[in-house]
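Quick one, tokens below:
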């Protein structure tokens, strides 16, 4: 009936016909910059924006969880304090001694009262 090439074309046509009935279009509104960032992220991971969004939807539905994380960026005051603390630690300043017992630690802390 079909040669091997014809059979592949026939199977592909059937698949596309069935698949086209199984998909739908979702229209969303989002900020232009968000879309551009999402496209860059998807492209960097070898995906189209559609594939990225579909994977995200499937992940939420399969896990039953929506994880939303923002990078932790300290405010100016906290960043300044962290920089000072890290510089002190690098220089060995403002460091407590090593304690070999809780009693010695308590005594050291009590000395600041």
């Amino acid at each position: 009936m079909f040669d091997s090439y014809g059979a592949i074309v026939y199977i592909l046509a059937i698949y596309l016909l069935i698949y086209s009935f199984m998909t739908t279009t979702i229209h969303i509104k989002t900020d232009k910059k968000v879309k551009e960032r999402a496209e860059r992220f998807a492209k960097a991971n070898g995906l189209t924006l559609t594939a990225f969004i579909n994977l995200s939807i499937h992940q939420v539905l399969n896990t039953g969880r929506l994880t939303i994380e923002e990078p932790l960026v300290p405010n100016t005051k906290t960043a300044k304090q962290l920089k000072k603390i890290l510089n002190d630690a690098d220089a060995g300043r403002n460091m407590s001694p090593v304690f070999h017992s809780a009693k010695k630690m308590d005594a050291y802390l009590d000395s600041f009262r």
